[in-house]
Q: What sequence folds into this?
């Protein structure tokens, strides 16, 4: 097995305007093994971690199941992210590659619920968190009352995009709560 050229990978990631498709192609060809790319993505090293997250997001767009073996590891890392872009991308993975009970949905749910109350985080993170909670609520409908109560509490503090997502979710859950 040929050694990984980590120096080239990190240098390419640090280059402004790196070619995303070339990077993803290299990961798919195992020039840069997914294990290594994921280890960089789930690390505090910036900007390489954030850029590796983008590479993985693009990979997941091509093949949603590519990161299945790493979901539990990514969920465990979420509270330790060091940049909002890194947090956003990891949450985005879970909107495309749905985690299962085996991947510690409880920890992911707790993280996503904590995100909703944090007014310093960008709306994209909150929207991804709401989408993930919505997915979990399909599997665990018992969380819907708590989720809707939180949505009602945070509604007035959201941007237009956040308010739009909340309105759609509240409308969706309206029948569930009144039955």
A:
């Amino acid at each position: 097995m040929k050694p990984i050229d980590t120096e080239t990978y990190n240098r390419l990631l640090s280059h402004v305007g790196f070619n995303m498709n070339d990077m993803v192609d290299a990961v798919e060809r195992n020039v840069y093994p997914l294990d290594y790319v994921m280890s960089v993505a789930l690390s505090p090293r910036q900007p390489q971690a954030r850029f590796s997250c983008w590479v993985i997001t693009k990979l997941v767009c091509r093949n949603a199941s590519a990161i299945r073996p790493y979901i539990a590891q990514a969920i465990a890392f979420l509270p330790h992210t060091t940049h909002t872009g890194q947090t956003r991308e990891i949450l985005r993975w879970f909107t495309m590659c749905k985690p299962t009970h085996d991947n510690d949905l409880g920890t992911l749910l707790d993280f996503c619920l904590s995100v909703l109350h944090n007014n310093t985080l960008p709306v994209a993170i909150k929207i991804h968190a709401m989408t993930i909670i919505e997915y979990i609520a399909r599997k665990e409908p018992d969380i819907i009352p708590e989720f809707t109560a939180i949505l009602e509490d945070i509604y007035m503090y959201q941007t237009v995009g956040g308010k739009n997502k909340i309105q759609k979710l509240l409308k969706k859950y309206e029948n569930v709560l009144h039955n």
Summary: Residues 160-177 form the longest helix (18 residues). The CA atoms of residues 61 and 173 lie 29 Å apart. DSSP finds ten helices and no strands in the chain.
